[in-house]
Specification:
- The protein has one domain: Winged helix-like DNA-binding domain superfamily/Winged helix DNA-binding domain (Arc Repressor Mutant, subunit A, Orthogonal Bundle).
- Helices cover 71% and strands 8% of the residues.
- It is built from five helices and two strands.
- It has a two-stranded antiparallel sheet.
Length: 98
């Protein structure tokens, strides 16, 4: 099953074009970001980034671009589920309809 944390990390790396900048934005270490991306790539069975060793820049592969689109939809759906369940579990929400 896909881990939402790995998907968020993947999207941050893709947006920053850098594992290091993504780590700073996420408040974690660069090796942690690298480990999450490698685990996600293993899980999906495909490289998600072209890595440029000397510039430390990363660019999405074709499969990475497709995964980026899907991951955005999955994360949006996860946020929608959280929001709906919070609203449904709020006791004051049921009184508002009266």
């Amino acid at each position: 099953m896909l881990d939402l944390r790995k998907l968020r990390t993947f999207r941050m790396v893709a947006s920053a074009n850098s594992f290091t900048r993504a780590a700073v934005e996420l408040g974690c270490s660069q090796p942690n970001v690298t480990a999450q991306i490698k685990a996600l790539e293993r899980e999906l069975g495909a490289p998600l980034f072209e890595r440029y060793r000397f510039t430390k820049k990363v660019v999405l592969t074709e499969l990475g671009r497709r995964a980026f689109e899907y991951s955005g939809r999955l994360l949006a759906l996860a946020d929608e589920i959280r929001s709906a369940l919070r609203k449904d579990s709020d006791p004051s929400a049921s009184l508002k309809g009266l």
